[in-house]
Structure formats: structure tokens, C-alpha cells
Amino acid sequence: IKFFKKENKNPKTKPEEGWGSFFNTLIVAVVCATIMRSFFYEPFHIPSSSMKSNLLIGDYIFVSKFSYGYSKYSFPFSLNLFEGRIFESKPKRGDAVVFRLPSDPNINYIKRLIGLPGDKIQVIDGQVFINEIALAKEYIDDFIDEDGSKIKRFSEVLPEGKKIIVLDQYPDAPQDNTGIYVVPEGHYFMTGDNRDNSQDSRFLNAVG
Asked: What are φ and ψ of residue 25, in 5° steps?
């Protein structure tokens, strides 16, 4: 009687080969994720209510990294590889923009851009004026907050015709009446869509 040993066409991978393959895959994944986050899209978590009702607490969003070009903050660890911004394009009024807080560049903010360089911005009784012209504002409905409370929701029409949705929770909030802000060259004026619960460009010492 002869016994024939069947050849194993799929021999088991040696343990060291398996670990090597795993680490190679991990390195490729990390490199791809770094390139994606640096040059294309980066995920962000919404931690506050300042952009309600458009962005809610706990929302996860992907933000385009190439829309306005690249600065040192586009790269991991904010590597200072060059001055200023490359492949730059200007943001437009009405854009929702993620930016570094000027008073603390380690913090990311997301706000609505409403003021361009040279603009004069003022809020009077909750009404936004851009270059002394009031934005058209129309009541839409009531936004129902997490606690069941109702917040008045309005549409505003920006000078270029873009319509944005904002909330007005308190009729006499301190930031409902401001002085005139003149936006310097190279700067932009940001507000939250939840106007009465947003630390934004109306607070010069904090955001500016």
C-alpha cells in the first residue's frame, strides 16, 4: 500500500510575512489618508450651535481643502513650508468657511462669510446692513430645538442674490446692535447662522 501526500497548493503564510504585509498596508493607508486630508477633504465635527439650523451639534462634515488654495495650516503639524497661500482663490460672500481662530490658531471655527474686504458691516435691531443697505429678511417658520423650544427662522438675501437661512432666538440680544465694522484688506467678516448664539467677527477681541 502506497500513501501519497497531497501537495498543499496554498501553504500557510509565515507569521513574519503576515505582519510585514499588515504593516505595509497600514503605512500605505496612513500615507493615503494624510494626502487626502492635506490636499482634498478633511473631516470636521460640529461642536457648537453657532451654525444652527444648517449645521447641528454632533454633525460630521467633509470640508474641501483646495477651494481657496493651501496655506501652512493645510498640512499636518502646520508645517511652515512657504509664505502665504499657494493656488489661492478668493472665498465668496455666503460661503460657509472653516478657518483658524486668529486669537488661537489651534482652534478651528466654522462661520458664514458675509463681509468682504472694504465692506462696512453693521447690525441694527438684529437687521444686518452691508454698505448701509439692509439685507432683505423674511420669516420662514419656527425651528424646533433639541429641548423643544421654538426659534424663529428667517431667510436673508445677500447683495449678490444668494439666500441664507438664519435663526433669531432673542429679540434684544447684545449683539443685535453693533457699531460699524470696516473690513480691512485681506480680511473677511464672519457670522454664525445662529446669530444670537455665535461668537464671531462681531466680537473683535475674540475673533475679529
From this structure: -65, -40
3 state DSSP class of 118: coil
Is 50 an active-site residue?
yes
The yes-or-no answer on residue 6 being catalytic is no
Give the 3-state secondary structure percentages of the chain, helix then strand then coil, rounded to 5: 20, 35, 50
pLDDT tens across 24-57, in order?
Answer: 788 888 777 777 777 788 899 999 999 999 999 9
SS3 152: strand
In this prediction the pTM is 0.80
**Residue that has been written with the C-alpha cell 513650508 in this structure:** 81
Catalytic residue among 49, 52, 111, 201: 111
Residues in the chain: 208
Distance CA 8, CA 140 (A): 72
Determine how β-strand 41-45 pairs with β-strand 104-115.
unpaired
Which of 49, 50, 74, 198 is catalytic? The answer is 50
Structure-block grid coordinates of residue 35: 494626502
